Structures are given as C-alpha cells and as structure tokens.
Amino acid sequence: MTAQVIFAGCRELPRGSGDERAVGPALAAVGVELHWAAWDDPNVDFSAADLVVLRATWDYARRRDDFLAWCDSVPTLRNSAAVARWNTHKRYLLDLADAGVPIVPTELVRVGDSPRWPAGEFVVKPAVGAGSVGARRFGPRQHGPAAEHLAALHAEGREALIQPYQRDVDARGEIALVFFGGVYSHAFTKAAMLVAPDLDGSGLFVAEKLAAAEPGPDFRGLAEDTLDAAVALLGLTRADLLYARVDVVTGEDGAPAVLELELTEPSLGFAQADPAAPLRFASAVRGQLS
User: Fold this and answer.
1) How many other C-beta atoms are found inside a 10 Å radius of the C-beta of residue 262?
2) Domain ATP-grasp, which positions (predicted)?
C-alpha cells in the first residue's frame, strides 16, 4: 500500500521554494505519495497522513505559539513538535554551548534588557526567525542604528541575539552540512547575505547564493558532535531526526564554530547536492514510516 506523506509549507509558499523538486519522484520510487499543504490550512486533515514533514513553514516567526500548537496536534510530525519547540528559539545555541559545542559567541538580549555591544562588526537578529529575515549587520561605530533595530524588535515583543560578525564568511561563506536520518548526506556553501540583503518574492527569506561544498574533517567532526549534543539534550537518537542541517563558519581563532543548527524547516540544498541525495532523503522518509 502506498504511504501518504504531506510536506508542510505556508500560505505564501504552499509548495515550498522549489528546492525539493527532485524529491517527489524519489519518494514515488520507494512507494511514497507526496502532497503539499500550508500548515495552517483548515481544510487539510494532517492527522490522516502517514507522515507530515515540516518543509517551508517559514511564516512561523510571526506566530510561533500558533505554529507550535499545530505541531503538537500532528502525531506523525517530523521533525517532532518537541524538536520544533526547542529549535525555533535560538536560545538553543546557548544550550549547545553549555554542552561543550563551539558556537559563534552569542548573547541573548531579552525584552527590556540592555546589550553589550561587541568591539568589532556584529549582527543583531531576532531570536525567533527564519530565512535571515530581520538579521542585520552593523559596523563597530554603529551602536546607535543597532540600538534602534534592537528596540524595534523588542517593541514587537521579540528577543534578540547579538553575535560578532565572522569575517571569514565574506571570503568563504557558511558551510551547511546536511544529515538524513542522522547520517551525513552532503554539504553546500551559503555566501554572505547581510550586505544589502534581498528578500525572496514571498518576503519570508533572504535570497541565497548557494554552491556545492566538500567540508574538511574539522567541519565534519564539529557537525557530527553538534548532532550528538542536540539529540542528547532532546532525549532522542540521531535516527529520530528525519533531517538536520548544521551551519558552520570559521571563527576569528581559525577554528570552526556553529552558527546555526536547523532541525525544523531548513532548505536542504538538493539543487547543490549529488543526484542521489533525493533518494537518500526518500529512504530516510521510509525509515520514519517504519
């Protein structure tokens, strides 16, 4: 019998960004029928699906409570509602740091709190956000504009992160390492996006310049360690995660550091991966069904 799987998007992107174009045929090849639906579409019975996969739910930042309530209502959600609850607030980076994972230095500035500005260039971003929307880069003498941006986020009731800007990103970008079912699949680079960023037509994410990548052993090792730390914090196994993406940069000390761990709705870079990547993902979906 053919399994029924729903990929969850949002009203602006009900069929995703197009990155999963090759995934439908790969799923069909392993006996899985794919459908797309906006996560908040009241006419869709998500509970009837064999599996519901978070893929392009990028409007959640505007109404995270509603989104998490919906996640809780879907018993076959992947990644799970518990994962989404932890991963959709970037304080998870501090949890990873406490677990010994090297991260880009991060300060969480709660509403009403005053920040400690880094000495050099830095980034201010919402603690709940997707697609780099609301993230802005400031120079060392731009504390005034940065304070205005922070105040605007706080006025909306949004906590913020402050991170020193990692200059190596300008030369080499971020490296995103992708895992399916806890197993490494492929990697791609993302060029620097915080200089005059352009929003996609949906307004939900900053358009990215992507390319295939072959990460070195230090980046691979950090990504593996990050995944191990995350599942330990969540009380899961790596196989419980249908997908994961670890974004790594080279820090000011020359060592790799985690910028983001994406476990909820990341782009997975199929267009930059080898042709077998969609089938690896399809096999991971089948693994979740069993």
Assistant:
1) 17
2) 93-290
Q: How many domains does the chain have?
A: 3
Task: With residue 83 as reference, give the H or E element that holds it.
Answer: helix 81-87
- Which tens digit of pLDDT belongs to each residue from 227-265? 999 999 999 999 999 999 999 999 888 999 999 999 999
Average pLDDT over residues 111-136: 89
Are 60 and 88 in contact, with CB atoms under 8 Å apart?
A: yes
Asked whether the beta carbons of 40 and 56 are under 8 A apart, the reply is: no
Per-residue pLDDT, 63: 93
In a domain, residue 281? The reply is no
Helix (H, G, I), strand (E, B) or coil at 117: coil
- The burial class, CB within 10 Å (0-12 / 13-18 / 19+), for 269 is buried
pLDDT of residue 134: 82
Tens digits of residue pLDDT in 212-222: 999 999 999 99
| 287 occurs within a structural domain | no
Do the domain assignments include residue 286? no
CATH number at residue 73: 3.40.50
Per the domain annotation, does 235 fall within a domain? yes
Q: Can you give the pTM of this predicted structure?
A: 0.92
Q: In whole angstroms, give the CA distance from residue 281 to residue 27.
A: 8
Measure the CA–CA gap between 189 and 269, rounded to whole angstroms.
9
Q: What are the tens digits of pLDDT across the range 79-99?
A: 999 999 999 999 999 999 999
Do 227 and 97 reside in the same domain of the chain?
Answer: yes
**Cα(290)–Cα(287) distance, rounded to whole angstroms?**
5
Domain residues for the domain of 153 are 107-164
Are the C-beta atoms of residues 245 and 262 closer than 8 Å to each other? yes
Together in a domain, 7 and 21: yes
**Domain harbouring 252, CATH code:** 3.30.470.20
